[in-house]
Structure prediction request, 301 residues.
Amino acid sequence: GFTPLLETRIGGNRIWIKQEQLFPTGSYKDRGASVLISRAVELGIRKVVEDSSGNAGAAIAAYAALAGIECEIFVPEATAPAKLAQIELYGAALHKVPGSREDTARAVLVAAETEFYASHSWSPFFFYGTKTYAYEIWEQLGFNTPDVLIIPTGNGTLLIGAYLGFQDLLSQNLISALPRIIAVQSENCAPLHKMWADRLEQLPPRQPEKTIAEGIAIAEPIRGRQIVDAVRKTEGAFVTVSEREILTALVEMGRNGWFMEPTSAAAFAGLEKCSIDERETVVVPITGHGLKSTDKLLSLL
Ligand SMILES: *Cc1c(COP(=O)(O)O)cnc(C)c1O
Prediction:
């Protein structure tokens, strides 16, 4: 943990960038994987299974390797090759599942009948790891809470962790208000935005569409209600960004010296769409390193 938080200016906005791409596996998923695998070890687990669009799988595989426990990762066939190489190098058995992200989720459930399911979207221990995102920001801002957190969101693993972490600080009277959480979704896959905007009680019928923001292309987030409730409680909002806006943000961030995967660029595209006061403290994470999707970036350029 303790990734750098750097104050900078992007376009017209003064923001703080939390450099989550600097984790050992190249994404913030290490926060959750570290706690979840530590808990598995504590329980005497010898083998775990997990499904992921790439980064969570890489993080679980890395920490399982470090802990000396066996690991099987299920990924959608179309996952970026760099992430597959990473998972295999950590020594995990890799299963490429044809079809959608949901087909992969169904495949792992069969394996999870008999093995420990180290799931980043179901297991509470993963979220108790991502909580540290909140504690660190608070500490790095001189024990102050920011006004706004912008978070790219699919399953909500960073969003829920951040929410729980700031809730902890609030309940200990260490801060006086929660930061507003702005959740950013891809226009092409935005079930949570729809649920929030239309005040739906349940997720809308799934409309799977492709987006370059593969990390947040989640048509059926299992914690949908919880994510929407958390955003409401912080008086935050959901925004959607188009493929073009994601690409524009990706290129503009590159021109400012920042290299990230397209999913992470969605957050910076979202920044343009929020109503934020000049004096407010805004934190935006770089959730994943650009080197994870070099092949995809080449095709986009
Ligand atoms: C996992 C991930 C996210 C956020 O995804 P959730 O589905 O909300 O947990 C954002 N960016 C990157 C690079 C990720 O790996």
